[in-house]
Amino acid sequence: MNANDQASYAGYRALMLVLFGRSGQPPAWRAQAACAGQDTEEFFDPKRIEDVKDGCAGCPVLAECRSDQLTWETSGQGSRRYYASGIVAGLSGPERKRLHYPRTPDRKDVA
Ligand code: SF4
Fold first, then answer.
1. Rounded to whole angstroms, how far apart are CA atoms 10 and 7?
2. Do residues 61 and 29 make contact, with C-beta atoms less than 8 angstroms apart?
3. Where's the 4Fe-4S Wbl-type domain (predicted)?
4. Higher pLDDT residue, 43 or 7?
5. Ligand 1 in contact with 88 (CB < 6 A)?
6. Are the C-beta atoms of 81 and 101 separated by less than 8 Å?
7. Beta carbons within 8 Å of 46's beta carbon, 6+ residues apart
8. Which one of 54, 56, 87, 91 would you pick to mutate in the ligand 1 pocket, going by the greatest count of ligand atoms within 8 A of its CB?
9. Is residue 89 a contact partner of residue 62, using CB atoms and an 8 Å limit?
């Protein structure tokens, strides 16, 4: 398995866990998800990023999905960096990573 495959696999696991839960039972909000029944591989296709993000932007459970995903990524269930791939809750892996690891402000930004 090469690095890209590993990243996709990790992202897939992350998406499955956030959307379906650890027990295999979906969270209550899942029934209202815009991506219900959608091919999850789209969430890892670089050519579909904007389409997937558009879908998430109109999703009625975006806030719940984002909260669960970000919580899960910081819950100690593995490396955040490892799982930070794919679009989940309208955020790319690098965007989620920046939320977890906010950059130190540039010197010019410091008052
Ligand atoms: S915000 Fe996006 S990933 Fe989350 S449930 Fe809605 S469509 Fe799916």
1. 5
2. yes
3. 34-98
4. 43
5. yes
6. no
7. none
8. 56
9. yes
Q: Give me ligand 1 centre to Cα 66, in Å.
A: 8
Assigned token pair, 58: 């109109």
Where is average pLDDT lowest: 21-30, 41-50, 61-70, 91-100? 21-30
Indicate whether residue 59 lines ligand 1 (CB < 6 A): yes
Strands annotated E in 1-111: none
Q: How many Å lie between the centroid of ligand 1 and the Cα of residue 3?
A: 25
pLDDT of the residue at 38: 81
Q: In angstroms, how far is CA 9 from the centroid of its own chain?
A: 13
The residue whose CA is least distant from atom 4 of ligand 1 is 89
Q: What is the mean pLDDT of residues 51-80?
A: 84
> Tokens standing for 9?
């696999």
- Is a pLDDT exceeding 60 seen at residue 11? yes
| Contact predicate 70/96, CB 8 Å | yes
Q: To the nearest 10°, report the CA torsion of 84, 15, 11, 22.
A: 90
